[in-house]
């Protein structure tokens, strides 16, 4: 049984996992003030936290399946990912771009597997966007099933895939997710090629976010919890993740592609990380 709160990685916590009720888990990102998605945060924070959530939910689901009438409260589940809870400025400011560029396998071995894991996670996932949500942080939120965002009334908040402004090419995983989640070509152009900063209201109108909330981080998190309560029961059937695997099959096949030329130095770097 996991002891909560679980701060990861041990010794240098960048995320904290809590379990406030039987059917809800919350991952708080807190790498500095803007929660950059670094190698360490992803590999030693988010991925182990997702493992802990899935393990505990599956234990509850097995209890439910043994006797669904007697254990009707078991097997429910929802996961919220929120930016640092003691501020209202950032959900995530994106990747640690400089260091990710130094790793030729960053997307193939670190970030893309994270996106795939969240896209196919077996319980509902909700991004509680409590501030600016840029680039890789925006992509992390889009991998979730639902997005709840601050309305930006007390502090400005934008969503932006702004790579075009600082010369960062999109990995094929980003393009795959955007193609799958958004069918409107002018909107995709605005997002990808113009690097538009969507206000919360604009994001709601075009379907990037599902709900906009007036208030601070606590208010955004409270609405996300309501959404989790609303849909956590759909995890009891045990097929939430498998349905998503089919729904996003094209995205997953895209993520699994490696469009790079074969390079022995890249392969050796991957082997060094693995071994």
TrEMBL record:
It holds the Pfam family ECH_1. Coiled coil: none annotated. InterPro entries: ClpP/crotonase-like_dom_sf, Enoyl-CoA_hyd/isom_CS, Enoyl-CoA_hydra/iso. CDD domains: crotonase-like. It comes from the Eukaryota. Signal peptide: none annotated. Belongs to the enoyl-CoA hydratase/isomerase family. This is ClpP/crotonase-like domain-containing protein.
């Amino acid at each position: 049984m996991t002891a909560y709160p679980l701060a990861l990685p041990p010794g240098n916590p960048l995320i904290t996992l809590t379990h406030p009720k039987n059917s809800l888990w919350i991952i708080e990102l807190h790498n500095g003030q803007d929660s950059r998605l670094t190698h360490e945060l992803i590999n030693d924070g988010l991925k182990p936290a997702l493992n802990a959530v899935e393990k505990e939910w599956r234990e509850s689901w097995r209890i439910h399946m043994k006797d669904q009438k007697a254990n009707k409260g078991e097997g429910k589940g929802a996961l919220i990912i929120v930016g640092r809870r003691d501020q209202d400025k950032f959900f995530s400011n994106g990747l640690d771009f400089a260091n990710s560029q130094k790793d030729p396998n960053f997307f193939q071995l670190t970030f893309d597997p994270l996106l795939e894991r969240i896209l196919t996670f077996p319980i509902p996932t909700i991004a509680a966007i409590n501030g600016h949500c840029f680039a890789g942080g925006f992509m992390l939120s889009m991998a979730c099933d639902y997005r709840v965002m601050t309305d930006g009334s007390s502090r400005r908040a934008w969503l932006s895939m702004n790579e075009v402004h600082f010369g960062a090419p999109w990995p094929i995983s980003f393009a795959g997710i955007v193609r799958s989640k958004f069918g409107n070509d002018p909107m995709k152009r605005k997002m990808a090629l113009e690097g538009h900063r969507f206000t919360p209201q604009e994001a709601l109108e075009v379907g990037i976010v599902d709900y906009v909330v007036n208030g601070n981080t606590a208010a955004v998190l409270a609405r996300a919890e309501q959404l989790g309560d609303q849909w956590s029961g759909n995890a009891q059937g045990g097929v939430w993740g498998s349905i998503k695997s089919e729904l996003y099959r094209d995205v997953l096949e895209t993520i699994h592609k490696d469009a790079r030329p074969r390079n022995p130095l890249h392969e050796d770097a991957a082997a060094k990380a693995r071994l």
